[in-house]
Amino acid sequence: MSDSPQKDALNILQLLLEHLQNQYNVCPEEALRLIKEKEELVVPLSVFERYELTFLEALVKYLHENQNMRFSGIAKALNKNPVSIWGCYKKSKTKHPNQFSPDLSKGDVPVAIFINRNLTISEALVHYLSQQKKMRHVDIAQLLHRDSRTIWSLAKRALKKNEQ
Questions:
Q1: What is the mean pLDDT of residues 63-91?
Q2: What is the rounded distance in angstroms from the CA atom of residue 144 to the CA atom of residue 149?
């Protein structure tokens, strides 16, 4: 028996990384990067620029078409009902039939910010950009092609809901 559970875990991790290197030619850095990438699913901000789509429709469309996620997986990631996710996708296909070609240079947001059911998708997005990314409302409005008064309202509603 070894000295501590931490030492045991490190030894097991080292063996796994060596196995990945030898068996699959995956270096430890690449393995850790893949784990982190899988762990944190992100969405490019440019996806939300489509003014003909709601933020939820754009998000669902991107996750389904660009990330090849199933509706059940999207529902789980967003803490929503799979049937409503499917309906949302159908609406988005009618409004915007083509697949997104996102502009990655505008940044991205983690999908995990949308899991809070107390906030709408738009409130969660605006709240994240204003509170975590420290963006001004006018800059968020410009980035998302929305009216700055709408962004201000979404930000205030999100703050109020988070205080409760």
A1: 95
A2: 13
